[in-house]
Amino acid sequence: MRVGVLTGGGDCPGLNAVIRAIVRQGERTYGDELVGFLDAWDGVRDRKTMPLTIETMRGTLPKGGTVLGTKRGSPFDSSSGAAEVAATITALGLHGIIVIGGNGTLSVASRLHETHGLPIVGVPKTIDNDIEGTDVTFGFHTAVQIATEAIDRLHTTAESHDRVMVVEVMGRHSGWIATYAGIAGGATMVVIPEKPFDIDDICRRLARRHESNRFASIVVVAEGASPIPGTLDIDERTYDRFGHVLLGGISDVIAREIAERTGFDTRVVMLGHVQRGGTPTAYDRVLCTRFGVAAINLVHDGGFGQMVVARGSEIVPAPLALVDGRSKPVDPALFDGAQVFFA
Ligand code: F6P
Fold it and tell me: What is the C-alpha separation between 18 and 294, in angstroms, rounded?
């Protein structure tokens, strides 16, 4: 078979490991020819490709980023976009395309399959771990590891100065990274989008902790966190050209309020894109490898309109339609159960 591969949306550690696994399994097991599209859907529209072979992918397993480049945006941004994708598939003689992406990219892939019958298989990627249908996405474990290491370092400087450190992590509208990194890093408290916060309550809990002679505190805040409506003024949200809310900065608001209301010396650390950079953890490399092999197998099984997902210890197919622009929230049992460790 001739199979196309693209990476869409924000990058995350492990993209190259997935591509490498697709190529290995494709070439070695099936004698396939793999074609990489550059810069996501733009490469499909403009037919900008690169050959993906065992040779070209050599050494890429531990490399962060994506050899294919990636971009936000969708063929549905223009009226002719979907037809252009279909035309490329025909012109290049492709039997299928493997789309590696997050919520946005996989929702587009699902729509292309449903409306135009295109032969697409998905692989769920994102550090945010917010894709419905899969227990876990690749990149998440690496981002949690990076955030945890940062929190470990912040403990010692916070203790030296008796400070409150407010650490902002990514995750869009889900608090998975904050919850996992908060538990793993022994945070004082974790603030997530799924539970709008009460700034009075945050300050009361910090004051109580400091009254009992514990001075340093680490408050992990997910970028999508917001106050209980009517309790705190925050600036109007701004949006990017794709209509996604631009997140980042809620930790400044929380830190300012903590400092003003409690008098504690407070600092902000925004981990930002550091969480998306560099080499994937061993766990993610294995997950990526299993996803990549399963994705090319699914193409050969004719499982179009599906993605490969992790369920327990298995990698299985699931409908792309499950994604549908939704954001998978943190498991409430996990978050509530962790409260015993927080102030
Ligand atoms: O979805 C992954 C993610 O890193 C989010 O956690 C974050 O809100 C967003 O992407 C940042 O996007 P950009 O790369 O466009 O700054």
Answer: 10
Query: Exposure pattern of 90-122 as b/e (b: 16+ CB <10 Å)?
Result: eeeebbbbbbbbbbbbbbbbbbbbeeeebbbbb
**Two tokens at 282?**
């061993």
**Residues in the chain, overall count:** 343
Q: What is the atom index within ligand 1 of the atom nearest the CA of 103?
A: 1
Per-residue pLDDT for 239 more than 80? no
Q: What three-state secondary structure class fits 83?
A: helix
How many Å apart are CA 327 and CA 297, to the nearest integer?
27
Mutate to test the pocket of ligand 1, among 66, 146, 170 (most ligand atoms within 8 A of CB): 170
DSSP 9-72: SS--TTHHHHHHHHHHHIIIII--EEEEETTTHHHHHHT-EEEE-TTTTTT-TT--S-TT----
* Choice among 51-55, 167-171, 177-181, 243-247 with the minimum mean pLDDT: 243-247
Say if residues 128 and 174 touch (Cβ distance below 8 Å).
Answer: yes
Question: Residue 321: what pLDDT?
Answer: 97
How many other CB atoms are found less than 10 A from the CB of residue 285? 23
Cα of 13 vs centre of ligand 1, distance in Å, is 13
